[in-house]
Design goal:
By secondary structure, the chain is an alpha+beta fold. Helices cover 26% and strands 18% of the residues. It is built from three helices and four strands; from the N terminus they run αααββββ.
Length: 125
């Protein structure tokens, strides 16, 4: 089933539910989405995310010194321009990012506070 069809089915199920009364808690959305389906289809699988699965990147950014805020072409890296952000478990002292969804490769910044010079380059995704 195409994403637009799935989205449409979910939106219709939410609208139908709202006719019966307000939705008070996020868990209600989960129930509605699980039960939203075509007449002959199976319920959708919903993967619920908890707060523990999200990282507070503000703490990490506080540890990045100003000389690390340069990308491969020595352009300033602005947090507001980052569109895709990735952290790899096996390389915890590196930030991988893209400033556009169409960029084929991630840029990387070494955020190790002990490093003296910035080590940034393009990384294959």
């Amino acid at each position: 089933m195409k994403v637009t069809t799935i989205t449409s089915v979910i939106e219709k199920a939410i609208a139908k539910s709202l006719k019966g009364g307000p939705i008070y808690v996020p868990g209600d959305y989960v129930r509605i989405i699980r039960n939203a389906k075509k007449k002959t289809g199976d319920p959708y699988v919903v993967h619920e995310l908890t707060n523990e699965l999200f990282l507070d990147i503000k703490k990490m950014v506080e540890h990045i010194s100003p000389h690390h805020e340069k990308a491969m072409s020595n352009n300033d890296v602005k947090l507001s321009e980052i569109r895709i952000f990735k952290v790899e478990k096996n390389r915890p002292l590196w930030i991988f990012f893209k400033s556009s969804y169409s960029e084929p490769d991630f840029y990387e910044i070494d955020v190790n506070p002990e490093s003296i010079s910035p080590s940034t380059r393009s990384a294959k995704s």
